[in-house]
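Page header: ASSEMBLY MODEL / two components / 746 residues total.
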Amino acid sequence: MAEPTKDSKVSKAAEFSKAEEPLVATPNVSEVETVDAASETEAVAAIEAPVERGEPILQVRNLVKHFPLTQGILIKKQVGAVKAVDGISFDLYQGETLGIVGESGCGKSTVAKLLMTLERATAGEVFYKGQDITKLSGRALKAVRRNIQMVFQDPYTSLNPRMTVGDIIGEPFEIHPEVAPKGSRRQKVQELLDVVGLNPEYINRYPHQFSGGQRQRIGIARGLALNPEIIICDEPVSALDVSVQAQVINLMGKLQDEFNLSYLFIAHDLSIVRHISDRVGVMYLGKMAEIGSDEQIYDHPTHPYTQALLSAVPVPDPEAREGRERIILTGDVPSPANPPSGCRFRTRCWKAEDKCAQEVPLLAVPERFVGQDTPAAHESACHFAEEKDVVHAA
Amino acid sequence: MTIIDKTAFVPEPRSGGDDSTTLLEVRDLHVEFHTRDGVVKAVNGVNYSVEAGETLAVLGESGSGKSVTAQAVMGILDMPPGKIPQGEILFRGQDMLKMSNEERRKIRGRKVAMIFQDALSSLNPVLSVGYQLAEMFRVHEGMGRKQAKAKAIELMDKVKIPAAKERVNDYPHQFSGGMRQRIMIAMALALEPDLIIADEPTTALDVTVQAQVMDLLAELQREYNMGLILITHDLGVVADVADKIAVMYAGRIVETAPVHELYKRPAHPYTRGLLDSIPRLDQKGQELYAIKGLPPNLLKIPGGCAFNPRCPKAQDICRTEIPALVPVTEQDGAELPGRGSACHFWKETIHG
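Prediction written out in full:
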C-alpha cells in the first residue's frame, strides 16, 4: 500500500471530521426519560431505585470518543484524532444480554471503558436509569460505579499476582464498605467463591495456583462482589480453552438468572455471542453497522459487513464446506484516524456506489422493509441493505 | 473489492505421487522436559503421517503436546530441558532424529518449514521484512543481496501483499496483523518446501482476515502439492480445511479419523465432548454441554487413560489400563480406513 505522507493524511482527517458534524442521531432508539436530580442525595436515590424487567436500564446516545494525536514534545499540538468510537447509540434492557461483535480495532473495548467511566467521553451521553453518567461526580458517580461492573478478557493479567484470592475479591468492599461490613467480609468472599463454583477454602491461595478457567471465575466473583445490576464482559472467554469456555458461559448464564443481571457481552466469537445474547450489535470502525435480535442478525442480516463477517466464520461441519458461499473481504480495516468518507465500510464493500462515499448511512430500519413484518426489518446502517442468507447450515 | 468464492477449500483429488514413501511419519515419539519440579511428559507416544498434498489437522487444547510434537519435527526444541527419549521422525523414510545437525539444517526450511502463531513476535523488529525474507535465499541458496531481494519481492507478490516493491523495505510494525501473517507464510514458502507445519496460524487474527489467510494457504498448498500439518484448537477451521484429523490429549493421540467421519461419529468421549460444547442453534437458551474438570497437570498425568477423571463413561479399567490407539470398525466388523480411537469403550461411543 502506497500511503500518503503523515501530514496530508492528518489534515484530511481534520476536514472529514468537520464535514461530518453534526452527528446525526439514530432515529429508532427509545425516548430517554431523564431524571432531574437537584441534589446528590436525590441522584443516588434515583440510581438505587429498581428497574422493571424489560425496561431500558442503560441508554447510550451518540457516544463519541476521539483520542487526540499530538505532535511536538514540549508544545503538544493536536494534529488529528483516532476516532475509536464515533457516534453510537443503543439501549440495554434490564435482564437481557446485548452482544457486541466486531473486528479488533472497531471500538468495542472503548465502548466498554466509556460505560465504566474509565475513559471520559468526547461527546454524547450514557444514561443509567435516566441519569447521564458522563456528567455525574462524587457520591452519585460512586453509586453508579458500584452498579456497573466489569469482567476482563485476560484472566492471567487482570488479577494481581501478589494478592490472595480473598483480597482480590474483597477489595471492592474497601471502596464500598456499605455492601459488606468489615466483620462479615471474609464470609461474603467465601460465599462468592461458592457461587462461582470454586472451593471456599481456596480463599488464601494466590492466582498462579489456579488454571485459566478458575481465574476467570475469580474475575467473575470480583465483578459480582458489589451486587451490580450490569456486568460488562470484555471477551470473557476468548483466552480460555474450548472445553473450559463452555463451563464459564454456563456459569454466566446461571448467574444472570440468579442475580437478575444485565450483560453487555463483547466478543469476537460469533457462535458464543449468538448462544448467550438476546440482541446483538455489529460494530465497524467506531460505528454501529447493524443491531437487532439474535435471529434478525444471524438469520436475516441486511448489512454487507455483517454478511461478510458471518460467512467468514468457519462452521464446525465438514459437510457444509463444499456448498457454502463465503464472502472474503479483501484488505484490512482502514485506520480509525482517517476513516473513509460516507459509509465506513465502502472501501471493502462489493456493493459500494458513489452515494456511499458521500452520504453517511443512518442506523435505521431500511426503507424497503419499513412497516413489513419480516425479521429483516431491523436497524441497519446501509444505503443498499438487503437480505442475504449466509449461514443456512448453522 | 470482494471476491465471492463458492469453491474455496475444496480439496483437489489427490494424484498418486511419484515416490511411494510417506512424506513424513512420526513413530512413537516421546518428549519430556526435565524441570526443577520433576519430569514433564509433554508427548507420550505420538504416531501420525502426512502425504504430499494432504492436510493433517492436529487438534487439542493448550498443554496437549500438539506444538511440542511440531517443534520436535522441526528440530527446534530447546534441548535441554527438552529430551526425546524414544521415537522416530521419518522424512521420506529417513530418521531425522539420527541425523547430524548439518544434515538437519539442510532439511529445515528447504524441505520442512514452519509458520508460527504470533507473527509480531516471530519477526525481527529491527530488520526490514525484505531482508528477513531474502535471508532464506542468501543462507540456503547462496544468492547475492540484489538477487535475493528480487526473490523476496516475488514472494511478497505471491502471498498477495499489495505494492510489494514499495513495501519490501518496511519493518514488521508497519504491517497489519493479517499482512504480517502473510509474510510468515511467504517465509515458509520461500524454498518451496514439501511440508509446512502451521502452528495456530490464524488464532491471533480476526475472522475476516482468518478467512483470507486460510484461503491463501489452501491455494498455495494446491499449487505446490505440499503436505500441511495444521495445529489448532478451532473446530471450525479444522472442518473447513483438513483431510484427516488427529485429536491429542495429554501428550497422546486419542483419536484419528478422516474429517467427515470425525464430526459425524466421534469414537472417543473427549472428541465427543469437544464437539458437543460448540454452541448450536437448537440449544439456544439451554446450558452448553461442558466437559467437567480441567486438563491434567503434565507432571502427574492420571493413571490409566489420562481422560478418565473428566470422562462421563469412565469405569475401573480406565483408571488402571492405558488404552492403546486401536483401529475402529463398523458394527459388523467392516474396516473404517484411517480411523482409530484410544478408548476402552470406543464401540459404545461410536455405535451406541
